[in-house]
Amino acid sequence: MSSALMKFINSPTGPKTTHFWGPVANWGFVLAGLEQTTKPEHMISGPMTGALTVYSGLFMRFAWRVQPRNYILLACHTANGSVQVRVSAQLRRDTTHERAFAPSPEPFPATRSSDQISFLSHLQGYNFSRWYMWSRTQEAVTAAEAGK
Fold first, then answer.
1. 22 close to 28: Cβ distance less than 8 angstroms
2. Model pTM greater than 0.90?
3. How many CB atoms are located within 10 Å of the residue 115 CB?
4. Hey, where are the domains in the chain?
5. From CA 31, how far away is CA 84, in angstroms rounded?
6. What is the tens place of the pLDDT at every residue in 9-63?
7. Cα–Cα distance between 34 and 115 in angstroms, integer?
8. 95: three-class secondary structure by DSSP
């Protein structure tokens, strides 16, 4: 084998140590985060996404501060942090969109009696602004007649 390969294998962050295999296993988080970007928002866990973002931030700092510096771990958690921020943005965008275009709540709660519901159901679709303008006109006519 070449001397460069043997130097890497025997290095403090080489494949004979946990400094190598730990980050390699952590790439699973990145792959899982990338897979989440294709899921609908109701299948994404907001608290778990937040926890993974904080986790990656903490381990990015650890990877930078540990001696010898673990660049593989730093790259892994930088990628995971970026993916989790992307998933968070997707989750926020989807929930904001859902709230903006959510159907309005039921016009008549189930606690109303059947007589009230049958009466109020006739008012659905009624143009109240037209009624308001008509009532204002009637008030003006009444006031004018009273002033004569």
1. no
2. no
3. 8
4. 15-100
5. 11
6. 888 878 888 878 888 888 998 999 999 888 888 888 888 999 999 999 999 999 9
7. 54
8. helix
